[in-house]
Amino acid sequence: MATTLTGQVVAITGAARGIGLATAKAFLAAGAKVAIGDLDAELAATAAAGLAGPGTVAGLPLNVTDEVSFAAFLDRAESELGRLDVLVNNAGIMPTGLFADEATDLTDRIVDINLRGVITGSRLAAQRFVPRGRGHLLNVASLAGVSGFPGLATYCATKHAVIGFSEALHRELAEHGVGVTVVLPGIVRTELSAGATTPRLVAALSTVDPEDVARAMVAAVGTRRPVVTVPRRMGVSLKVMAMLPYRARRVADRLTGADTAYTKPDPAAREAYHRRLRGQA
Length: 281
Description:
Elements (H helix, E strand, L loop, with lengths): L8 E5 L4 H12 L3 E6 L2 H9 L7 E5 L5 H15 L2 E6 L14 H29 L3 E5 L12 H21 L5 E7 L1 E2 L11 H7 E2 L1 H14 L3 E4 L3 H10 L2 H11 L10 H13 L2
Parallel strand pairs: 1-2, 1-4, 2-3, 4-5, 5-6, 6-9, 7-8
Helix pairs in contact: 1-7, 3-4, 4-5
């Protein structure tokens, strides 16, 4: 059954491309009004202009690492579209490389965007939701948040943290009528994961399109499930892996190629992504 969210206002971070843009389209299709927030303000405005008319979608500047910017984004979303009902904390970056070679400023940037941005956005939204006794937070983590992948140490750390943070917040806000869902996508066909040398079998089991993640998030607002995996079948795999001894899990990683997917990626594909990240520094 399709989820209907007619008239609800949804704000999405990092929404000018990839999962965020697909999610904006999915919420609009469900009848919601959507604020597209992105560090690339021009791209956010262009994305919004291509989706719907005034009063239905707004493309707004947003730096999730700056609390003043985040608050201004939510204020403008409410001013232009109406009272906020859903915040999707989607913005994130995934540089790859060996941790020993990772520059300190890059580590800080990953943590600031992937974790601090989620915490900041959740606080600002909760301050709106709790007095009203309603609202929903959707925090995008990753299947990398329940395991550790070489070449993604800091990224994995932030996504582990988002999962723990979301679980605690779900329990804390439930009595106030506010929902919290953490979303765990597998390998998504976007620029962020481009170039990973994932074996064919693993890719077949865990690779999804941005639209798959978007549909799962829209559905989560209706079901209010605390944890959503995309694809859903990966939830079973995670439970099975969790029951295996540590050494057995590492053997499985070697056999599936998970231990080298991001330490030996396609260099050209990763460089294109890293080049865009450097341009946003």
